[in-house]
Amino acid sequence: MVCIRCQMVVKSELEKLGLNYIYVNIGEANVTENLSDDQLKKLDYSLRRSGLELMDDKKSILVEKIKVAIIELVHYTDDQIKVNLSDYLSEKLNHNYTYLANLFSEVKGITIEKFFLTHKIEKVKELIVYDELTLSEIAYKMHYSSAAHLSNQFKKITGLTPSHFKDLKNKRRDTLENV
């Protein structure tokens, strides 16, 4: 569960099944009672219908925590971390970064850094579409050293320059308005 909407779905499904919870955060839920096998199966089934899954093995849970930490950092925090990403994740998740990186790559098939950069670029796309900030302001907000650095990374990941991406969005809007 990596978004607030997912969090709401989990709360709703728990309530439908008559299960009381202490909290439901992005990526985890704490219920007040021990669940029977039947309750776990019902919960798993209802979550899968919503595109979510119940995780109960330690490796999957840790990978999910890595994803949640990165998503919160990129999408829900304006603060720049004071240390590098590896130190941030190690400290936040209380594990050696090499272990976290190897586990993440093994389970997800991509590196933590690639996952992080992909989410940064998704946030940049969102900011470009909102059209409220210049590229330099977006670069500053997303903690890039310069607009040129952001542009290079954007092109490497998307295959487009930020300005071409913005032009495509504007052309699409023009086309829709002519319908």
Q: Based on Cα principal axes, name the global outline.
A: globular
Helix content: 55-70%
Please tell me the overall pLDDT.
Answer: 87
- Compressed to H and E, one letter per element, the order equals HEEHHHHHHHH
Provide tags for this entry.
transcription regulation; Homeodomain-like_sf; HTH_AraC; single chain; transcription; DNA-binding
Describe the structure.
By secondary structure, the protein is mainly α. The chain has helices spanning 4-16, 37-49, 58-75, 85-93, 97-108, 112-130, 135-141, 147-158, 162-177, and strands at 21-25, 28-31. Strand 1 and strand 2 (28-31) form a beta hairpin. The longest helix has 19 residues, at 112-130.
Protein topology:
Blueprint lengths: L3 H13 L4 E5 L2 E4 L5 H13 L8 H18 L9 H9 L3 H12 L3 H19 L4 H7 L5 H12 L3 H16 L2
Antiparallel strand pairs: 1-2
Task: Write a brief structural summary.
With 179 residues, this protein is mainly alpha-helical.
